[in-house]
Specification:
By secondary structure, the protein is α/β, with parallel strands linked by helices. It folds into 2 domains: 152 residues, Quinone Oxidoreductase, Chain A, domain 1, CATH 3.90.180.10; 142 residues, 3-Layer(aba) Sandwich (Rossmann fold). It has 12 helices and 15 strands. The strands form 3 sheets. Strands 3, 4, 5, 6, 7, 14 and 15 form a 7-stranded mixed beta sheet that branches. Helix 12 links the parallel strand 14 and strand 15. The longest helix has 16 residues. The relative contact order is 0.14.
Length: 330
């Protein structure tokens, strides 16, 4: 393979249309514990756009290549690598910058993925499905038949929650802002799908027969998060993992005093940093199994070449899409 590749690069923070460039780079020599990976797919996530704009909590050293997720195929390994071989599909590390044609990566940072999982789906397993899986396991001990409520249910993470919860036997109340999403998410497996408005509390009570809801997943904040807090049972836990409204949680004192609600957060990057390798591998094994059985699929709207990055990033930034936007490998 040629040592020259193309990569998307930004040298200053700003709007993607203004700061991104497609540049040629030379790949470094392959080290004894490294692997050469050819990229097959890399999604455009909101966090990627936030990082480019300088709004993400972690800022890479500039110049930088965006992309927290991606999947590719190993083309060559260093002489000391034993756990990978050429032809293996792998998930890339989140600190690599995946919007590129290829990369030389430390072999122990790669996660092997069954080759029968489509590269586009493999590329999107590391953030949203993992976030969904961990939030359904790490905060409240749920049992089959229990209810979970979430806002932003049409997001990639929200759809993963629906799919994973259904497989685990949990029931979901899914809150959305657009009426046209209600039937779509019901067909996708959501047990209850409701609009995020002032009638929500009564609608949830009627749909669930006032069943206690002990876990809420919040990706919006603001009034939407407050509505969830008013709905959940006493002693419930509300996990915040996003802030789509860009508004803070404002919680009346009474919900803390009399309902004793627990508020916490989840950031998948921190989970990767803190979790043991065995737990990480077990999580991936379960997600791989679901993906192989067709039970965990992320909806894709369109794939673009790296050279089409102006159109791709503009589309990814739009609110009303019919799935994820990805870069495809050469």
């Amino acid at each position: 393979m040629s040592r020259s590749i193309k990569a998307i690069v930004y040298r200053a923070h700003g709007k993607p249309a203004e700061v991104l460039r497609l540049e040629e780079q030379e790949l470094p020599s392959l080290g004894e514990n490294e692997a050469l990976v050819r990229l097959r797919a890399a999604p455009i996530n909101p966090a990627d756009l936030n990082a480019i704009e300088g709004k993400y909590p972690v800022r890479p050293t500039l110049p930088a290549t965006p992309g927290f997720e991606g999947a590719g195929v190993v083309e060559e390994v260093g002489p000391a690598v034993r756990n990978l071989k050429a032809g293996t599909q792998v998930i890339l590390p989140h600190d690599l910058g995946t919007w590129r044609e290829a990369a030389v990566v430390a072999a122990d940072k790669l996660v092997a993925v069954p080759n029968d999982i489509a590269p586009e789906q493999a590329a999107m397993l590391k953030i949203n499905p993992t976030t969904a899986w961990r939030m359904l396991h790490d905060f409240v001990r749920l049992k089959p038949g229990d209810w979970v409520i979430q806002n932003a249910a049409n997001s990639a993470a929200g759809r993963a929650v629906i799919q994973i919860a259904r497989e685990l036997g949990y029931r979901t109340v899914n809150v959305v802002r657009r009426k046209e999403l209600v039937e779509e998410l019901r067909v996708a497996g959501g047990d209850v799908v409701l609009l995020d408005d002032d009638e929500l509390r009564d609608a949830v009570a009627a749909a669930t027969e006032r069943a206690p809801i002990r876990l809420a997943l919040n990706a919006v904040g603001g009034e939407s998060a407050l509505r969830l807090a008013k709905i959940v049972a006493p002693e419930a836990t509300i996990v915040t993992y996003g802030a789509m409204s860009l508004k803070p949680l404002t919680i009346p004192n009474g919900l803390l005093i009399f309902k004793n609600l627990r508020f916490t957060g989840f950031w998948v990057n921190k989970w990767y940093e803190q979790t043991a390798t065995a737990e990480r591998d077990e999580t991936f094994a379960r997600l791989f199994d679901l993906a192989q059985r067709g039970l965990l699929q992320t909806k894709i709207e369109r794939s673009y070449s790296l050279g089409e990055f102006p159109e791709a990033t503009a589309r990814a930034a739009e609110g009303k899409r019919d799935g994820k936007v990805l870069f495809r490998g050469a």
